[in-house]
Amino acid sequence: MGLVVRNTKDLVKPEDFKLKILIYGLNGTGKTTFLSTVPHVGIGASETGHGKGLIGVATKGLDYVELNSYEDFEQFCALAVFKEKEAIGLDSLSDVVKTYVRAKALSFPRQKGDSLKRQAGCPEIDDYGVMGELTRKNLRKLIDQPKHVIVTAALRIDKPDPETGQGEMLIGPDLAGQMFLGSTAMFDLVLCTRTRSLLKDKNDPKSRYVQYYYVTANPGTGIIAKNRLGVEGGKSFLPTEIIFDPVNGEGTFPWLLNKAQEAYKDYVAKQGAKVA
What are the φ/ψ torsions at residue 193 (nearest 5 degrees)? Predict the structure, then answer.
């Protein structure tokens, strides 16, 4: 197939726009719940628990397949299933990597034989490099699908390390090797889910509740977050923090998609008016 000349303005046509999202955070901060708000989604489920971690959203009636091997992961990313779906979700990439990608990396023999550590199933430094590349290769296939793509991951904290030149604590997705940072470069939106305790009435301690929200841009505290969505010189139409309240529809996938489509629709209309 030869090279095809395209125009970037076609990327923001509201009817063709696709969201590519990596959402990560601590367990219980709403990642799977966010995924469950995606209309017409097909999910690759790979966590522990009943329904591979989907029991919390069982009443949503979501279509999913269980990922039980590296081969399953590979086929899922290549869209062997859910070709008719408008969106694809993976829950969670961290579990896939720690379980199936790790097993695949450890299956590669070494010329000098395995150490006792490796024989026991514990990856060594070079294994993490293999895990990172296997993850990148398959994730690239998934993101390139002409659909909305939503991938969840757990959270990892990397402390400063003088040997590697890392001078600050970083908070990012819990992925092996280069993919701790590399994965965040592959998505248009990288969201870090968080919670905080607030009072509905500042004078009533019994009015305390937990607020769920996610960060859309690096706040300068080591949290890795990214937002490529914007118009007019790259200015984003999303705030740096978004409250996640699925009961009221705030911060859900449809809420995000609508924000993007409306912003790009207005942009296209303004451009058309300038030409006229």
Answer: -80, 140
